[in-house]
Amino acid sequence: MKVDFTRWLPAIAKDQYRKTALSVVGVAALGGLALAPTAAAAPVTSGPHQGAVAAIDLATGKAATSARQEDQPVESGLTTGSATGKPPAGKPSREELIPHGIEGAQSRIPLDDAQLANARAIVDAAKKTGVGDRGAVIGIATSLQESKLYNLGHLGAYNDHDSQGLFQQRPSSGWGTPEQITDPEYAATAFFSALKNVGGWQDLPLTTAAQTVQVSAFPYAYAQWEEQAADLVQQLW
Fold first, then answer.
1. Nearest residue to 198 (alpha-carbon basis) of 208, 189, 188, 190
2. pLDDT band at 217 (very low <50, low <70, confident <90, very high)
3. CA neighbor of 229 nearest in space, from 109, 130, 125
4. 10 forms bridges with which residues in the sheet?
5. CA distance 74 to 46
6. Which three-class secondary structure state does DSSP give residue 207?
7. What does R_g of the chain's alpha carbons equal in angstroms?
8. Who is most buried in 69, 115, 191, 206, counting CB within 10 A?
């Protein structure tokens, strides 16, 4: 059935200075909701609105992949490794970034400047909170799943409860005020603070570590972004 996307309210994406930076028509959070920072993992309960899934696919280009798009670089301004397979000097290796190996089929999307800026904010917060490059991979993969690395404001009638920001954190669950969780630095710091409370998170598969923090309705969805997240961390670290 054809979906009329002109009926969708815009999702307001905010930059790190808390000003409106861009509007992404129909972008909504995939996956479940980020509940309380100390919540334990929960079983699958429900899925996102099907219109939201279609809208975010359209907004991120997934639904309209063409031969021309495939010829374009995956991340603007970024490379993904060297011809020798070795990381650039001072950058983490693939073994450090993906110590447990890739789980399942991987997804990948092109990124614009706003998304790259948000990825940098997550990497910076990973450094400041001490979770390191592996923590940064988990953080970026989580945000890719939750918001496609867009700092989403409230989506009006199509909002998934009161979830907002890069990690779709909920003010009603104790993550902070709407102003706080739509500040990339605050949101990433809150995510990593919760991650550090997960015992042995460094030794867990990415999807397990992310799910224990996020309590998503789609607990295995985070794994599909591990490779792109690792590429981003290697370049931005």
1. 208
2. confident
3. 109
4. 25
5. 31
6. helix
7. 17
8. 191
In this model, does residue 98 exceed pLDDT 70? yes
Q: How far are the Cα atoms of 2, 55, 62, 110 from residue 5, in angstroms, in the given order?
A: 9, 7, 15, 21
Tokens 């991979």 correspond to what residue? 137
Where helices occur in 25-107 by DSSP H, the ranges are: 50-60, 67-70, 94-97
Please tell me the predicted confidence (pLDDT) of residue 146: 94
Retrieve residue 109's tokens.
Answer: 């999307």
Give the Cα separation of 30 and 152 in Å (integer): 12
> Tell me, what's the pLDDT at 30?
40
**Beta carbons of 148 and 108 less than 8 angstroms apart:** no
Task: Please work out, in degrees rounded to the nearest 5, the angle formed at the alpha carbon of residue 167 by the alpha carbons of 161 and 170.
Answer: 35
Residue 203 has pLDDT above 90, yes or no: yes
Write down the number of H helices and E strands in the chain: 9, 2
Q: Is the pLDDT of residue 41 over 60?
A: no
Query: Could you tell me if 145 and 221 are in contact, meaning their C-beta atoms sit under 8 angstroms apart?
Result: yes
* Token duo for residue 3: 């979906």
